[in-house]
Amino acid sequence: MFRILLLNGPNLGRLGKRQPAVYGTATLADVERAVRKRAKAWGAKIDALQSDIEGVLVSKIGGSDGVYDGIIFNPGAYTHTSIALRDALQSVQVPCVEVHLSNTAAREEFRRISHTAAASLGQIMGFGIFGYELALIALVNHLASGKKKAARR
Fold first, then answer.
1. 23 has catalytic annotation
2. Which one of 36, 82, 85, 152 has the minimum C-beta count within 10 Å?
């Protein structure tokens, strides 16, 4: 059984209320429920954390070695600003899949830069809350293949 950390950054606790035209009407509880349901079918266990505080996210990632097999991470706005989160991801031996509800590549110019992407196995974006399930599928497939964490830049 794989143990997966589902990590969400700033403002994701406001899903369902914050800009529903962009992020949809599903809540973070809906996201967690859907991921847990799919994880159970795949033989994985999910621990979830959402924080608006960068340091809390950095600490959780930093403590993930030996606790989690993988991370599904939506860094929210920190995607575009946080070298600290990138460094945290690079400091652990836990593979991460980055996920975004919207297609950040099709949005404002500043949202097209991801500091955390290079420290992740890959990104899934633009599929709403289903993107989290796609991230889980990708991560479990990677873990089941026995591959080590991808090389980091």
1. yes
2. 152
* Closest listed residue to residue 68, CA positions, set 35, 100, 44: 44
Do residues 149 and 93 lie in contact, with contact meaning Cβ atoms separated by under 8 Å? yes
Beta strands (DSSP E) in the chain are 2-8, 44-50, 70-74, 96-100, 122-125
CATH class, domain 2-144, is alpha beta
pTM recorded for the entire structure: 0.87
> Could you confirm whether 100 is annotated as catalytic?
yes
**pLDDT tens digits, the chain, 153 residues: what are they?**
999 999 999 988 887 787 667 666 788 999 999 999 999 998 899 999 999 999 999 999 999 999 999 999 999 988 876 899 999 999 999 999 999 987 666 455 755 577 787 889 999 999 989 999 999 999 999 999 987 665 444
Q: Where are the domains of the chain?
A: 2-144
Q: Which is the catalytic residue, given 68, 78, 80, 100?
A: 100
